Each structure stands twice: as C-alpha cells, then as structure tokens.
Amino acid sequence: MMESGEITVGMQVRYPRTGTVGKVVRLEKQERDLFAELDSTHLLYRIDQLVTYEGKGKAGPTAERGDLERLAEEREFARKLHTDTTHLDEMCDGGG
Q1: Is the distance from CB of 27 to CB of 63 less than 8 angstroms?
Q2: How do the domains of the chain map onto residue ranges?
Q3: CA 25, CA 9: separation in Å to the nearest integer?
Q4: In contact, 47 and 4? CB cutoff 8 Å
Q5: How far apart are CA 63 and CA 48, in angstroms?
Q6: Cβ–Cβ < 8 Å for 43, 13
Q7: For tag attachment on the chain, is the N or C end more exposed, with fewer CB atoms within 10 Å?
Q8: Could you tell me the CA-to-CA distances from 46 to 1, 12, 54 in Å, in that order?
Q9: What does the pLDDT read at residue 86?
Q10: Which pLDDT score, from 0 to 100, does residue 89 have?
Q11: Local mean pLDDT, 10-residue blocks, the chain (96 residues)
Q12: CATH class of 4-83
C-alpha cells in the first residue's frame, strides 16, 4: 500500500479490493486521511489503500464495457431472483 509521500497527481494506481485502475487527477485531505480521485471512476480512494500500477494504461472503454456487461448480468440475476416464485411454498400467504 502507498504512503502519502509516494502519490502524485498523474500517477497510475490500482485499488486492489475491486481491481479499479486509474490515473490520479487530484488529491484531497479530509480530516486525518488523504484521498485520491481517479479518472476512471471519479471516486475518492484513501491513498493508503492504493498500489502503483504499471499495466497497459488506464481502464478504458473496453474495461468500462466489461463492467457494464457485468452490471447488466447482475441486475438480470437480481430481477430473476426477486420474481422467481417457484421456490415458495405459500405457507405464509395471506396471514393477518
């Protein structure tokens, strides 16, 4: 993980918990923590949770497309999960 002195604007970093990769566009101090905004998500990440990344460049349209496809699949799964009633035994229907 990185320390505050190691990170600079323009640096390519990765957030290991989600695999998010991006270039640091700004640094922001909030209370006692220092955060970096990444160009790929426009979200703030605590810099002590980031690692340097020397991959094939930033996550571009291909990575974003993969993320969107995965999101669509997860939404479809959730929709089916909430609308599939074949597993219900109707034992508690109409109670009151």
Answers
A1: no
A2: 4-83
A3: 5
A4: yes
A5: 24
A6: no
A7: C
A8: 10, 15, 19
A9: 60
A10: 62
A11: 73 92 95 94 94 68 65 78 62 60
A12: mainly beta
